[in-house]
Design brief:
871 residues, alpha/beta, Isoleucyl-tRNA Synthetase, domain 2, Isoleucyl-tRNA Synthetase, Domain 1, four-stranded antiparallel sheet, four-stranded mixed sheet, RNA-binding
RNA sequence: GGGCGCGUAGCUCAGUGGUAGAGCACACCCUUCACACGGGUGGGGUCGUAGGUUCAAACCCUACCGCGCCCA
């Protein structure tokens, strides 16, 4: 065993250990008979790179997975990447644009070849980065959402849903992204407030008997106006309902209709209706009897003006963008005298979440999933407790969204993705089938053309928990690992992914995909700002790993992960936990230097010495806290309990107490306790713990070691004894610091009237000398003159200082301590004097108050007496 | 407009109805043979405001103020 270097250098060990674990198959050892435990990783975008949100997500999953593996289970953490339709196609399009190429010029096949090349080249970036975090996932079976088998499963699901009436084709308004030129789902639309204007226009009655004022935030869409709506109860307009208006620009004759959508309070109370370009107007139009196919459309796929069916749009407006059309229309309105007024107004405006383009509601044929039918079982799964949502507060959001769910537009006008398995005959009939052959069988002998579109990426990722296990084949993996045990995801994909997984899982597997859904927050910067590239406040997890090590970063994220809160990441915390790793490292060194080796037992060794019996008990208590934290998924408590045990108990006290007395028993206990630390800390800090584990000769790696089973009990007496020793040392140190007594001066504790304490402390004389610079304690009847005095558990201990004493300082010190004790004593006395308390409070509370009162009274009394003696 | 969450020490956050804790920061002391990425000691909070329930409220209830997020 070579001596450990003085400072822990994460870089030197991380890569080595990761490679060792992976090549040794240790992330998923053969454990066919063991109880299965399963989690699937949210597949990152194949062309993505690691950001701090991944780091959190992955850490939380790895922590659980590593512990379950140590518990002896067949722990499977499924890993893979997502083809990420829009994101990937965008990246590749941008790249080939650099070479002056356009996908339309290349054609579908060539373009897809390029995307696959790109995927094969750059798809490894994110998976390499996951490895740097220490993610112990099942790389041997890495998946991709466009694997051939996965594609078959997706096609099967689509066809099956179509058969079950859960998927249909429909012409209606969709959210059209004019930049990517594809439909997107409601979830991909982000509404932001934009400073805009509110225009009031005047539309003349066709019979020239007057005009009606209408208000709009988008005047350019007037080119496709089909009506003006007023509220049926609005007295001002009642007489006009049914009359025709002459559109000021197109001259189109449009009716005045009654519809409750018109808000009498807003503007003039009359609104223009453009069913082809506004979701509300679409509904109004349908109520007014317009068929979707007849609704006027004035935009092409890029949202430039095109001629409406009736051919009434003036020639010079054709081809203009939405903005330019608006600019051109305003002077036209002015010259017609149709522009009444313009006011500033904040307008909620829809944007594509990826493109940033203003979304245009557009009438198109798309495929829809009737998710309302699937939502009900997903709601019930949570109500019945088949899925436990953590933190629970998210359940309400879950219900609310699922209860109000809208049809999901699943088709995308992209090339990269799962192509929709639908074929069209020339007569317009559509055949949905898993393959062209199958479609041909249905269609008979006629030419077929496959649907050009692909599916929403989330349609395929919704199948992740079972398709990755081999579904639709009934594999052994699937049987063992579905449902998964837990899913961990950010709340930002609760609807996009989690809810859809639940719906699809229940529909196709007949069972929920996971028993627990854990949702974590976002990682923000130290000021609480959302991180974004444009703000330049992103924290690069790889940079943090380079600087502080993966263990420190993981520990930080876990320690800061408290349920229901976002994480404000402060680099100082990472630094602090790097220091913690170094502290642990050095604890190993001191043990090593004193001949402590690897422990040879899983159970706690037999021990006689109080200090050893005490530390065994402390390990047990820490383990209990840790196990509870794991059960409750309280990552902050996991980190907290192990941190305080390692630093505050093991290093600060146990190691200090046993220094200089490394007998065989102590060596055995120290070795055991340190082993327990390594095991308990391993899920959070896998690298350093594995390295230290190996620093002592072992037959197997820590990653596959057993989670602690101490088979021992806390020894109350040993605990009390060590705690009083600790208390004496702490009191003596405080007294030294407050009285400015130099460390060079050895003090002799005079124990007043407590022979058994003298005995006990006598056996710890060496410890007292080392830790508090005290001589052997002696029994005394009263405190010698010029003594500093402390009270420990009701016993006064005096330290004669002779001329060195600063009487005033000592008096004020004692007075302060006495006052504090008296204050507590009096508070308790007051409570005990209240019959309402003694009669109505819980007996334990009363009992505790009594004993606390007694202790505080005694302490105050002793301190006052000590003060008396000083004169 | 509806929903969710947050407001506790200078900062970031824990906190079970029984009289407030941690880390960092700060101050003082210590280069004591594991560790200065360290050791020791200390100061610092009327728990957002106002009511209510209770013997007892940071914790439960109500209202208000401030902040954040989601949905419409």
């Amino acid at each position: 065993m070579s001596e450990l270097p003085k400072t822990f250098d994460p870089k030197a060990i991380e890569e080595r250990w990761y490679a060792h674990w992976e090549s040794g198959g240790l992330f998923r050892p053969e454990r066919g008979d063991a109880k299965p435990w399963t989690i699937v990783m949210p597949p990152p975008n194949v062309t993505g790179s690691l950001h701090i949100g991944h780091a959190l997500d992955i850490t939380l999953q790895d922590v659980l997975t590593r512990r379950e593996r140590m518990l002896g289970k067949d722990a499977l953490w499924v890993v893979g990447t997502d083809h990420a339709g829009i994101a990937t196609q965008m990246v590749v399009e941008r790249t080939i644009a650099g070479q002056g190429l356009k996908r339309q010029e290349l054609g579908r096949e060539k373009f897809l070849d390029i995307v696959w090349d790109w995927k094969n080249q750059s798809g490894g970036t994110i998976t390499r980065q996951l490895r740097r975090l220490g993610a112990s996932c099942d790389w041997a079976h890495e998946r991709f959402t466009m694997d051939e088998r996965y594609q078959r499963a997706v096609a099967y699901v689509f066809v099956e849903m179509h058969k079950r009436g859960l998927i249909y084709r429909d012409k209606r308004l969709v959210n059209w992204d004019p930049r990517f030129q594809t439909a997107i789902s409601d979830l991909e639309v982000e509404t932001r407030d934009v400073q805009g204007k509110f225009w009031t226009l005047s539309y003349p009655l066709a019979d020239n008997s007057g005009a009606i004022q209408v208000a709009t935030t988008r005047p350019e869409t007037m080119l496709a106006d089909m009506a003006v709506a007023v509220h049926p109860e609005d007295e001002r307009y009642r007489a006009l309902i049914g009359k025709q208006l002459k559109h000021p620009i197109t001259g189109r004759l449009i009716p005045i209709i009654a519809d409750e959508h018109a808000d009498p309070e807003l503007g003039s109370g009359a609104v223009k209706i453009t069913p082809g370009h506004d979701f509300n107007d679409y509904e109004v139009g349908k109520r007014a009897g317009f068929k979707p196919a007849d609704m006027l459309n004035m935009f092409d796929a890029e949202a430039n003006v095109v001629q409406t069916q009736d051919g009434l749009i003036p020639q010079d407006l054709l081809g203009l963008s939405r903005d330019d059309a608006r600019k051109a229309i305003i002077p036209m309105l002015e010259s017609e005298g149709a522009l009444v007024r313009v006011e500033d107004r904040v307008i909620p405006t829809p944007f594509g979440d990826r493109s940033g383009a203003v979304i245009e509601p557009w009438l198109t044929d798309q495929w829809y999933a009737d998710v309302a039918k699937l939502a009900l079982p997903a709601i019930q799964a949570v109500t019945k407790g088949d899925i436990r949502i953590v933190p629970e507060s998210w359940a309400k959001t879950w219900f609310n969204w699922l209860e109000n769910i809208q049809p999901w537009c699943v088709s995308r006008q992209l090339w990269w993705g799962h192509r929709i398995p639908a074929w069209y005959a020339e007569d317009g009939r559509v055949f949905v089938a898993e393959s062209e052959e199958e479609a041909r069988k249905q269609a008979g002998d006629q030419p077929l053309r496959q649907d050009e579109d692909v599916l929403d990426t989330w349609f395929s990722s919704a199948l992740w928990p079972f398709v990755t296990l081999g579904w639709p084949e009934e594999t052994e993996e699937l049987k063992r690992h579905y449902p998964n045990d837990v899913l961990i995801s950010g709340f930002d994909i609760l609807f996009f992914w989690d809810a859809r997984m639940a719906m699809q899982g229940i529909e196709f597997m007949g069972e929920v995909p996971w028993k627990t859904l854990y949702l974590h927050g976002l990682v923000r910067d130290a000021q609480g700002q959302k991180m974004s590239k444009s703000k330049g406040n992103t924290v690069d997890p790889l940079g943090l790993i380079d600087k502080y090590g993966a263990d420190a970063m993981r520990f930080t994220l876990a320690a800061m992960e408290s349920q229901g809160r976002d994480i404000k990441l402060d680099e100082k915390r990472v630094e602090g936990y790097r220091n913690f790793a170094t502290k642990l490292w050095n604890a190993a060194r001191v043990l090593q230097m004193n001949g402590v080796g690897a422990s040879d037992s899983i159970a706690a060794p037999a021990a006689e010495l109080p200090v050893n019996r005490w530390i065994i008990g402390e390990v047990l208590e820490t383990l209990a806290k840790l196990d509870r934290a794991f059960d409750e998924l309280r990552y902050d408590e996991m980190a907290d309990s192990i941190y305080h045990f390692v630093w505050g108990t093991f290093c600060d006290w146990y190691v200090e107490l046993i220094k200089g007395a490394f007998d065989e028993e102590t060596k055995a206990v120290a070795a055991w306790a340190f082993d327990q630390i390594l095991v308990m800390l391993h899920p959070l800090m896998p690298f350093i713990t594995e390295e230290l584990w190996s620093a002592f000769p072992r037959p197997y790696e820590l990653i596959v070691a057993n989670w602690p089973e101490p088979r021992a009990q806390v020894d109350r007496r040993a605990k009390a004894e060590i705690e009083s020793l600790v208390c004496v040392i702490a009191e003596a140190r405080t007294m030294r610091a407050e009285l400015n007594i130099p460390w060079s001066a050895t003090l002799t504790p005079h124990i007043i009237g407590n022979a058994s304490l003298v005995d006990r402390l006598g056996s710890d004389a060496a410890t007292l000398a080392r830790m508090a610079k005290l001589a052997a304690p002696m029994l005394a009847e009263t405190a010698p003159p010029n003594s500093a005095q402390v009270v420990v558990n009701g016993t006064t201990i005096a330290f004669p200082l002779g001329d060195a004493i600063d009487l005033d300082a000592e008096k004020s010190r004692l007075d302060k301590a006495a006052a504090a004790a008296e204050k507590e004593r009096d508070g308790l006395a007051q409570r005990l004097a209240n019959p309402n308390f003694t009669e109505r409070a819980k007996p334990e509370a009363v009992e505790k108050a009594r004993s606390d009162h007694e202790a505080k009274s005694a302490e105050a009394e002793r301190l006052r007496a000590a003060l008396e003696r000083l004169g």
